[in-house]
Amino acid sequence: MISEKEKIILKRFGQHLKSLKEKQELSYREFYKRSGVNTGDIIKYENGETSPSFITIVRLAIGLKIHPTALLDFDFGIDFNAGLE
């Protein structure tokens, strides 16, 4: 079961992913062509509905032509000292 804090992280990741895509004015179709990640999955990530695997993060980064660490460079919205409980 996913915790409330994990839901916050997924939502914020999705917002960040969508922002990066929109800054490049990428359509879902073009993003799919560049990354190989299914459009339906991209939408799920953007909506914070599911968590991408490590390889998917790499593919998304390739699609955005950025380093994978840039996908994780956002405010997670949690206190890392408090854990995920």
UniProtKB/TrEMBL annotation:
InterPro entries: Cro/C1-type_HTH, Lambda_DNA-bd_dom_sf
Top-level taxon in the UniProt lineage: Bacteria
CDD domains: HTH_XRE
GO MF terms, alphabetically ordered: DNA binding
Stretches assigned to the HTH cro/C1-type domain: 17-71
Alphabetical list of PROSITE patterns matching this protein: HTH_CROC1
Pfam families on file: HTH_3 (PF01381)
Protein name (record): Helix-turn-helix protein
Organism the protein comes from: Pedobacter alluvionis
